Structure formats: structure tokens, C-alpha cells
């Protein structure tokens, strides 16, 4: 019994000594940890500042990885760089409203009647109803943009430009064109009743001057532009009978016309830069040749096109504002245009404001 007691005492003393050494080593490590001293959280002046900074970055990265389930930071997000400029506001949004027919076929494909009968109503039926739903979705989308403008603490969405009808769309079947014309009339009528309450100004971008449109459709668009010309809120540019290549060709012809009329001389043409030439395009100070016969009010010049949004999963420009979108950010949604929701617009805005835009620098 006596020997057992002695051995137990020796083991107890050894265990206490070992624990004392471990606690002392742990305390020393705490004292030497970069950026910590005596557990008070103050910087240790004896530690190399660069080492302390590196350790601090590692701790932050570990926290971010844990929070983001291991995802690495997006290298295109400006907020990851503390020296980056503040987020930029989305001022000019361009939208290619694609997928109306696909939406109509999936939702209204079982409607009876031939295409001519489906189109011969103020609200098309059958799959052509997708175009009407797309037109009414645009009215909703405009209201979301205006709402976002009011909620934003900084200037936001001063211009919205939408691709409603391209110059290539004239080749579609007559029944579909008739349905589209009815949709344009409904859209103009609906928007003209809301535009003044929204303080919305509507402008027309057209490289063919609506010369191929029925007279009543062209008159409806001109009436909408005239009725809203004095509004000072968001500007809506509607591209109808529009093609980007034709717009550039018309701009060149406009420069030639001004040279022939001695508005500009040869030296002015030689010195003209991209900003000067841009004045001859849609939204510039020079009324495009294609629109002169419509006698529209002077345009409100848009800022640079920040974002091009295309729906329905397609990833191409389709002759839309090809001069203006040289440095635009592109977003592609799998949804068709009538399926777009307000949250999609908010996500595009938030994502854009985090993107790095270097403009080739």
C-alpha cells in the first residue's frame, strides 16, 4: 500500500508538471501571435507589421471561405479590392426583349383558329398572344425601373432603351406582323395614360423612320413621343424598325449631307472623333436622316450604354446598338421576356455595380 501511494504521488506530480509546461507554451504562443498581445487585442509593437498584416488577411480569408462555403472571391468584383473606386451607378440599360413567341407557344399553343384569325384582334390569341404579354411586361418593367430610381441613393436608370422591332423583323409572316402592329397600338395607348404620372419621356430610335409601318402605327408612336416631350424623369428609347448597321450608315450619310450643305468643312470631318460622329446617331444632337420627315422634338442625349440585357437564353447582339455597346456589360437570362420579374432587374443592377470596368486601361 505504501509503494502504491508513492507511485500515485509521483504520477500526479508528473501530470501537473506536464500540464504546466503545455499551458506556458500556449500562453507564449498567444503572446507572439501577430496583432495580439496579452489577450487584449492590441497590436504587438515587437512583431513585424507586414507579418501581422499577412496574418490578418489570412484570418479574413478563412472567415470568408467559411461564410461562402468555400467559394473563392470573384476576381471581377470591385468590392474585394479596398483601393478600388466606389461602385458605379447603372445609368443606361438596354434590353433585347427576346422569347415572346416561345412563351406564347408554351402557354397558348392549344388555342384554336388559323394564324390569320389569331392575329385579327386587338389582343392576339394563340401563340401570338406572347407578343401582347411581352408588350405589357414592358409596361411593368418600366414601372420597376422608375421605382428603383426612387429607391436608389445615387443617380440611377436615367435611360432605358428597348429593342421592340428590328429592321430584320419585317420578314416575318404577315399574320405575325399584323399581331405586332396591334400590340404596338395597345402599348402606345397604355403608356400614354401612365407616362405623365411617371414623368416618363419617350423617344424613338428608328433607322428606317417607320416608313414600312402602317400609317396608324407610326402615328401612334409619334403621338406618344409628342405627348411626353416635356417630361423630365426617366427617358425611354424605343427601337422600332431599327438596325445598328443601318444607323451607322445613316450617320455617315448625315455627315456627308452636312459637308455638302457646308455645315461642316473638310477639316471638321477629318478631325471628327467617335463622340462627334455619335451626334449623328440615335439620341445625338443631329436628327438622324431617317427621322427628319417625322418632325420629332430634339432628343435627350443618353449617357454611355452601361448594360445590355438579353432574355430567353440567346447570347448575341442581333444588330442592337452596335456602336453604343462597345464597352457595355452583358447579362443573359434564361427566362423569356414575359417571364422576367422585378427581382431580375435588381440582380442585374447589383451585379453591374460590383463589376470592374477598365475600358481597356
From TrEMBL:
It comes from the Eukaryota. Residues 36-91 are annotated as: Disordered. GO terms for biological process: polyprenol biosynthetic process. Residues 55-69 have a biased composition (Basic residues). Keywords: Membrane, Transferase, Transmembrane, Transmembrane helix. GO terms for molecular function: ditrans,polycis-polyprenyl diphosphate synthase [(2E,6E)-farnesyl diphosphate specific] activity. Pfam families: Prenyltransf. The keyword Iron does not apply. InterPro entries: UPP_synth-like, UPP_synth-like_CS, UPP_synth-like_sf. GO terms for cellular component: endoplasmic reticulum. Residues 44-54, 73-82 have a biased composition (Low complexity). Its EC number is 2.5.1.-. Belongs to the UPP synthase family. HAMAP family: ISPT. This is Alkyl transferase. It comes from Triparma strigata.
Amino acid at each position: 500500500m505504501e509503494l502504491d501511494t508513492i507511485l500515485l504521488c509521483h504520477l500526479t506530480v508528473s501530470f501537473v508538471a506536464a500540464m504546466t509546461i503545455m499551458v506556458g507554451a500556449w500562453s507564449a504562443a498567444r503572446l507572439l501571435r501577430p496583432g495580439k498581445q496579452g489577450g487584449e487585442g492590441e497590436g504587438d509593437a515587437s512583431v513585424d507589421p507586414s507579418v501581422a498584416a499577412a496574418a490578418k488577411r489570412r484570418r479574413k480569408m478563412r472567415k470568408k471561405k467559411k461564410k461562402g462555403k468555400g467559394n473563392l472571391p470573384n476576381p471581377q468584383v470591385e468590392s474585394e479590392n479596398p483601393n478600388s473606386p466606389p461602385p458605379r451607378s447603372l445609368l443606361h440599360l438596354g434590353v433585347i426583349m427576346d422569347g415572346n413567341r416561345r412563351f406564347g407557344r408554351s402557354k397558348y399553343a392549344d388555342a384554336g383558329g388559323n394564324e390569320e384569325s389569331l392575329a385579327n384582334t386587338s389582343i392576339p390569341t394563340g401563340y401570338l398572344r406572347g407578343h401582347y404579354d411581352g408588350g405589357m411586361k414592358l409596361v411593368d418593367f418600366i414601372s420597376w425601373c422608375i421605382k428603383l430610381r426612387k429607391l436608389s441613393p445615387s443617380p440611377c436608370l436615367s435611360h432605358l432603351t428597348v429593342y421592340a422591332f428590328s429592321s430584320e423583323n419585317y420578314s416575318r409572316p404577315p399574320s405575325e406582323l399584323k399581331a405586332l402592329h396591334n400590340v404596338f397600338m395597345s402599348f402606345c395607348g397604355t403608356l400614354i395614360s401612365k407616362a405623365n404620372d411617371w414623368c416618363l419621356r419617350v423617344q424613338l430610335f428608328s433607322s428606317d423612320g417607320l416608313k414600312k409601318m402602317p400609317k396608324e402605327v407610326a402615328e401612334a408612336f409619334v403621338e406618344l413621343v409628342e405627348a411626353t416631350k416635356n417630361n423630365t424623369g426617366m427617358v425611354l428609347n424605343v427601337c422600332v424598325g431599327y438596325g445598328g448597321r443601318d444607323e451607322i450608315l445613316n450617320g455617315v450619310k448625315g455627315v456627308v449631307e452636312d459637308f455638302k450643305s457646308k455645315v461642316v468643312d473638310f477639316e471638321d470631318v477629318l478631325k471628327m472623333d467617335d463622340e462627334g460622329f455619335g451626334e449623328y446617331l440615335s439620341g445625338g444632337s443631329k436628327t438622324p436622316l431617317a427621322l427628319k420627315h417625322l418632325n420629332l422634338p430634339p432628343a435627350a442625349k443618353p449617357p454611355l450604354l452601361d448594360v445590355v440585357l438579353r432574355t430567353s437564353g440567346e447570347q448575341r447582339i442581333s444588330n442592337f446598338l452596335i456602336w453604343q455597346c462597345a464597352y457595355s456589360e452583358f447579362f443573359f437570362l434564361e427566362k423569356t421576356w414575359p417571364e422576367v420579374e422585378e427581382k431580375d432587374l435588381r440582380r442585374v443592377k447589383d451585379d453591374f455595380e460590383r463589376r470592374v470596368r477598365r475600358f481597356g486601361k
